[in-house]
Write a structure and sequence with these properties.
By secondary structure, the chain is mostly helical. The chain has two domains: 2-229 and 341-456, no CATH class; 233-295 and 297-331, no CATH class. The protein is 72% helix and 1% strand. The protein is built from 24 helices and two strands. The chain has helices at 2-10, 12-19, 21-38, 45-59, 71-83, 87-108, 113-122, 124-130, 135-152, 159-179, 187-195, 201-224, 233-247, 250-255, 261-264, 268-275, 292-295, 300-314, 316-331, 359-374, 376-379, 382-399, 404-423, 430-469, and strands at 64-66, 227-229. Strands 1-2 form a two-stranded parallel sheet. Helix 3 crosses helix 6 and helix 11 runs antiparallel to helix 23 (404-423). It is globular, with a radius of gyration of 24 Å. The termini are far apart. 39% of the residues are buried. The mean pLDDT is 90.
Length: 470
């Protein structure tokens, strides 16, 4: 018993929890407020699907076909099992989101912490996301947690703390890759940062194996829960093909009139072309002959990929023009991202999920959406957010800030994450960009306060020198 107490007393992570007790309490208060005001949380179309999938997991052992990533449904199902309500999920997500955000802010720099935390609390991008049933929120929090753990993992610790670290890396890796399948593109950044570090080889292997274990468990868990994860990536490639076919002209279009018919049946290509829109897969994916169920059938992804390569080879001009336009739209160049999907009462059916209409909830949603419009020049234009990050990072390098490597690591995570959507996307919406926006905004805030503080200090020193000369 005595040795166990010593282990607990000497634990790095348990001592950190004591140190951050105020932040834990603050996060709890903010989570209670946001959950109470927004109850049962902010739901949109995919949220309903995930809740229904969670209910199926509890009530039946039949195969669940899920177009959306199923990982959030596991936690929603746990909430339903424990409380018969989704309230617990909303609250825990909000609490962890606030707390992880505060801890990342501390890791990014100790300067002006009260100011940075205050700015974070009043930011709609934070409180609005905390209760939002969107996969990007969990993914963002998971990436922030991985960044924090990797930034302190080199500190010498006992076996008990290493066990905690394995669980944390495993769990948050499971969350990151389980909530957003596209997040796999951050693996090269994580691997490079780990293997380029000066850590012992044993520690490097420990980190990589913990993260990869979490990634693999995403697939294992889907098998355990009998979930058929339908291939959503197929839709992005088909959408690109359809937009390219729209660009080739009517004469050439006739040559491709049956191009996708071997996937969706006779007339599928023309049906999808007629319904397709340039801004989202929603035009054709739900009610055309190339719907999500057809595209997800086994073997179809290989066929689609082959046709995608064929289009690149045979219609390079139309393809590259479309790819350039798609990248511009994804980066907010010439077009702002769509801020939709943050709804007050989507489809008018939220009473089914415990919705209670209140003026406070309406104000909560309206305030978030209005702020999105006001701050659209920033949060809806990814290229500008990245540009600001690069400029601030250059200043930090010049100032020789000791946190510059951590800033660069966070920025590269954000770049590689969103890079996946430049390769294959389904729409041009802020919710896809959100994890990158979240990370970049926190690092920008830290770099900006550092730079302003440094400039002020230098001005004060210069004034002091002038006074002394007089």
């Amino acid at each position: 018993m005595g040795s166990f107490r010593r282990i607990i007393k000497s634990s790095f992570y348990l001592s950190r929890l004591k140190k951050y007790s105020f932040l834990i309490l603050l996060s709890l208060v903010l989570a209670v407020l946001c959950t109470a005001i927004s109850y049962p949380g902010i739901l949109y179309s995919d949220s309903y699907t995930r809740i229904e999938n969670a209910k199926k997991m509890i009530q039946s052992s039949d195969v669940i076909y899920s177009w959306n990533t199923p990982t959030p449904s596991y936690f929603i199902a746990l909430s339903l099992l424990l409380t018969y309500d989704i309230l617990l999920y909303t609250f825990v997500q909000a609490w962890l989101f606030f707390f992880i955000t505060f801890v990342l802010i501390i890791r990014l720099g100790q300067n002006h912490l009260p100011l940075k935390i205050a700015i974070t609390i009043i930011s709609p991008m934070i409180w609005g996301a905390s209760v939002y049933y969107e996969a990007g929120v969990g993914c963002a929090a998971g990436m922030a947690a991985l960044i924090v753990i990797l930034s302190i993992i080199q500190i010498e610790k006992g076996d008990f703390d290493r066990l905690i670290e394995f669980f944390l890396l495993f769990f948050f890796s499971f969350v990151v890759f389980g909530y957003r399948a596209n997040a796999f593109t951050i693996i090269p950044v994580l691997a490079y940062a780990i293997f380029r570090s000066e850590w012992r080889l044993k520690l490097k292997i420990f980190c990589i194996s913990s993260i990869i274990s979490g990634l693999l468990f995403v697939t294992i868990m889907a098998g355990i829960m009998n979930v058929n994860t339908m291939s959503s990536k197929s839709a992005g490639f088909v959408w690109e093909i359809l937009v390219v076919l729209d660009r080739v002209g009517i004469e050439k279009q006739e040559c491709y009139a049956t191009f996708l018919d071997d996937i969706g049946g006779e007339g599928a290509t023309l049906d999808a072309l007629e319904k397709n829109i340039i801004t989202s897969i929603d035009g054709f994916i739900w009610d055309s002959r190339l719907n999500n169920y057809v595209l997800s059938e086994q073997g179809n992804f290989r066929i689609i990929l082959a046709k995608y390569v064929y289009i690149i080879t045979n219609e390079p001009k139309a393809y590259y023009l479309n790819k350039f336009d798609s990248i511009c739209r994804s980066l907010g160049i010439g077009y702002k991202l769509n801020g939709r999907e943050y709804d007050y009462n989507r489809w008018g059916i939220m009473d089914k999920y415990g919705f209670h209409d209140t003026n406070e909830r309406k104000a909560f949603v309206e305030t978030y959406n209005k702020s999105n419009k006001v701050l659209g020049w920033y949060c809806l234009t990814p290229w500008l957010v990245y540009f600001i990050s690069i400029i601030l990072l250059m200043f930090e390098i010049r100032l020789k800030n000791r946190n510059t490597r951590l800033f660069l690591f966070v920025i590269m995570i954000a770049v590689f994450y969103y890079g996946a959507f430049l390769i294959n996307t389904q729409s041009y919406e802020i919710r896809y960009f959100y994890p990158s926006l979240y990370l970049l905004s926190l690092v920008n805030l830290s770099m900006l306060t550092d730079i302003i503080s440094c400039v002020i200090n230098k001005l004060v020193e210069r004034n002091a020198e002038i006074i002394e000369r007089r």
